[in-house]
Small ribosomal subunit biogenesis GTPase RsgA (Oxalobacter paraformigenes), 355 residues
Amino acid sequence: MNDLQLYGWNEELFRRKQESAYKDFTHGRVMLTHKTCYEVISETGYYTCELTGNMMYGRDASEYPCTGDWVIFQSIDRDKGIILDVLPRVKTLYRLKNGAVSQQQAIASYIDKAFIVQSLDSRFNVRRIERFMLQLSGEDIQPLLVLTKTDLGFNTGEIEKAIIHLSHKIPVCYTSIESPESIDKLREFIRVGETVVFTGMSGAGKSTLINALCGQEVLRTGSISDSTGKGKHTSTRREMVLLPESGVVIDTPGVKLFGVTNNDTDTLSDILDISDYEGKCRFKDCRHVNEKGCAVIEAVENGEIDSGVYESYLKLRREAWHYAASVQEKRKKEKSLSKLVEEVKGRKLNRQVLS
Ligand SMILES: Nc1nc2c(ncn2[C@@H]2O[C@H](COP(=O)(O)OP(=O)(O)OP(=O)(O)O)[C@@H](O)[C@H]2O)c(=O)[nH]1
Ligand SMILES: [Zn+2]
């Protein structure tokens, strides 16, 4: 019997389940996704589940369950099931869907903390950290910066200087696979019943850290199995693991590009330490691009704001605005399309009445 409280099940989720039309069926948490196939852990064991036809065709693919979701399913065999409902999703890590302009993709949900993992080598990039921080702040997910591979002999001074504008907004933890003490320190950030997602670029050391926290190689060993072998998603990169005497961790696939969808510019300014200057611009609606009397630009020119930070601000804001504008445009089109359909329906009806 699995204790789902260790996976985060609580009274609030129980209440949400009672509101579902399928409340009398089994509930469980999605541990792994593979196209339209899901590994779900329930009190009675692991199930390889698929979606009902209604769920697949009645909604956009971005609304399909993601790792971390709590679902209600009907078991149809000892280890197979059909997902009937997904409990309302909260605290979700989203990203802009690859190749899309107005669609976001849920990577993991019901997340308490996110470890932003960066390796201390030539690939270290402070701009990526800012990007993740912006995205996480939109969902009230607590971030922690995990700087890995300290054994490679990085220059502490340089790194500290690069993240100085972030240091009072995000706790930092340095790790090395060669230092068990550093792994123990990281473990202290994860509490029983909590869910922590590991994000970061490919090769940052996410899977290595999770294996170290677990004390064994747990990732990519294919925890589902059935007699046909169909359920062995060994190539799937996204996986949830319950740490011994600790919380749940989710590994996410390393991506090259992580597009943001959170267009809360106030938060962006706070993260990048720009807010104090914004209030001093001559114009209230200053965009800090080329306006006269812009205190932000002035601060960049006299070196108070790092030019890299300023560029990052403009880039992230542009990206998030572009996403928001594309979503609005899409909604407008959908609205006028449904209006047109209604009009055509109305005309048909009128013709029937007249004939
Ligand atoms: N020197 C050193 N190498 C490390 C450390 N942690 C991880 N590595 C190595 O870095 C490489 C990438 O590690 P992974 O754990 O696979 O990285 P990942 O972030 O999971 O990468 P993706 O799965 O592609 O997203 C491996 O060769 C690891 O052995 C460390 O603390 N020190
Ligand atoms: Zn300005």
